[in-house]
Amino acid sequence: MAASPHALPDSLPHAPTWHRCLTPSALTLIASVTLARLLYILFLCPYHLIEDEAQYWVWSTRPDWSYYSKGPGIAWSIWLSVKALGLSEFGVRALAPIYSALAALALAGLAADAARDRRAALAAAALFFLTPLFLLNGLFLMTIDGPLLAFWSIACWAIFRAAFRASARAWLIAAAAVAVGFLFKYTLALFIPSALIALALAHPALHSRWKSLAPAALAVALLGLVPIAIWNAQHDWPAIKHLLGHAKLPGGDVPTTAPTTAPTPAPFPLKHFFEFLGIQLAAVGPALGLMLAARRFTADPETKPAARFLLALGLPTLALYTLMSVFTSVEGNWAMAAFLSLTSLAAIALVRGLDDWRSKLAAWRSLPTPRPRAGIFLQRPETLAQISWHATLVYGILATLLFLRLDLVALTLQKLGKPVAMHRLLGAPDFAKAIDQLRQRETRGGAAPLLFSYHYGVAAQLTFYLPDHPMVRVAGSRLGYRRTQWDLWPDLSLDNPDLLNRDAILIGAAESQWSTLFASVESLGNLPQDRRKDRWTYLGRQFRLPLPEGGGRGVGSWTPESAPAHASPSEPERPRPGAVSSLIAAPHRADFTTATPTPRLAHTRVNHNSLSPAESP
User: What is the pLDDT of residues 254-264, one digit of tens each?
Assistant: First the structure.
């Protein structure tokens, strides 16, 4: 049994203050990692903005109270960082390490507070940075998951202090964290039932005022939904339809007549469950061993209330998504917030477990030689906590090095004859350069062709990486796919009569789909600069007004019977023979036979006011 923390120099009083829970060593680690990540994004990161990052940046150019599928938090954050640092990849991503640092700080404080042992702060911060599940959103990706982790972690620490430290201010901080978190990701709603379960389980240890303070805190937390609800009510509740579409429920935004691929065989029973389980095991890694080692603290009368509280903050969310995976596909990152409070609990297990291991090691070394075998893998004593920690250290460092330069790994595998698709992380600037060359060559009489994409992510990447940042239009909802934020911006509506008879460059989908919107469509095939090898580019001549949403049939409108059964973003219609070679040979079009690397935007300031509609000359 580990020594009581009250006998240790790092032990905390019964009701420690917030700042006493954070040690200099933990703060140094968090600051060092955050600075290193910022420098990596600024100077060394080889990855372009992924589609979601580019989409959120486009949203930030049009500040609003909410957006089609998410709250306004991510757009506001990117607007702020770009305003301060300039329009660049670094400007878009600069806050990602900051949000990760906030999460690490909160989990460090929570661990030390719950254990009343300041050593747990450093352990929690280290575990957070070493867990692959949390790596990408702190390393460089600026998506909604980073802020979700930050505000969920803050809420966890605050609600713990509200319950166990009789802090009225902590109730307000927890409520504010949930309210702000709502602005980024609706998943924060799951924190509320988790917190209520935790409060109910820990009831004997709670301060008597919690029943009166909890409703007030809940009311403050729900304030974060007010701007989102008002905006959605003004736009016919797109967020609700989007969530229903994700769940494949009636009323969702997934068209029932959407182009589909050929029927695929039904997956074997529990396929999604085992996929979800495998992803969680790989993403959390050996740190799961420390979470399992923490079970001893749920039985210890001294630590049982706090340990059960931390478990209750995470397990309900994990159980929900695990149950969902039995019936449908669940993304691997959806349950990531469930592991936050479990990380703090694992840190407590690590500190106490290493104390226990050192005690056993000292006793074993005091034995006369030859000493008996006392470990699982080694001659010396070993414990679950010690083995899990050493494995976590190796696993986390290797994962970090891997994520830093996935491009080099892919290049090595390609040389070995095992190509790896990297189009999600690489190639967007070169593809944008190829589209820009084509746009310049297709300009007639001073009027540049329009730019249409079937998908919001591709449109957003092109908008970011094209030299003049034109707003690329998204035609997905007119081709049978889901609606997007682009459908809610009037100036980008495809119903604009000024677009009639205009030519356009079309990216993605199938030629037969685009032909419903244009008098003629010429397939250019897959451009050599496009790393996604199943995506085709086309030239559309003489745009025709599509079918108005909810209205009557228009000229060249998309209808269910006109959509090819095989057409989808992942399986585009094949081009006519010789289309690519004819493009290369044509003297008035861009030469796409060689790909010239495009200068990165990592350090380049761009005039943010240069954004203009795609149809402008």
Answer: 775 555 545 55
